[in-house]
Amino acid sequence: MSPIVVGLLLASALIHAIWNAIVRNGEDRFWSLAIICLVGAVAALPFALALGVPAAASWPYLILSASLQIGYSLFLVRAYRDGDLSSVYPIARGSAPLLVTLGAALLAGELPNTAGLTGIACVSAGIILLALGSNRPDPKSTAAALATGVFIASYMVVDGLGVRLSEHATSYAAWQAVVAGVLIPLSFVVIRRRAPRLPRGKEGMLVVGAGILGTLGYCIAVWAMSKSTMGGVSAIRETSILFAALIGTFVLHERMTLHKALGALVITAGVVCLSAG
Question: pLDDT tens digit string along 71-100?
């Protein structure tokens, strides 16, 4: 994997951790997530129109991915209802790299080399270490976090397949942001039986900023899957857990433990292996 792709994915990981911290710290997490997605759709629409429509063969994947992200959003909100960012986030994101690698092997015949497999194993092991501390979430939050991880892996594999059929990776990424950014707020309307209120004040500014950054972050990941293995992209993107642990400790004042520190070191070793793979 090229240093440019690795660097962009690490930026995507930081962005992802930031907007998750904003969602976790919000008073109404479902509203925050709905507005983040809606803002992302509005931000992506001009680019989608300018870049044109991706190949017709990729649209079923694009729509399926956007639909899977509804499930991801609902389980993520449930997991954050009672769990801390630094305990729920590692479980939700940690299950994704191995599941994505398995899905890519089964559906795309994509097998990483030895360095790639070592990197994926290190990242996954480090993420598990981050989730084993004394502040682990309650069973219901843990189950919701694991379900979130399954949805993450599912939509990433679907997007990995779709972007390779699109003939234009940036166009696919932009349209994916638009479609998902419309469907998730619509799910809010169906469940709450009302439209989400418009963002305002400090919280509104944070959510709007998270929407723009979050869309950029996932578009980078989708583009990267057109250049590199799905499992490798997923593993590097899940280093967002490192950033989430730091944000949880220094911004949200959650306790740093030995498991978190050791997990951070193992994940860093994994990124080095993946960048060489």
Answer: 999 999 999 888 778 778 888 887 777 788
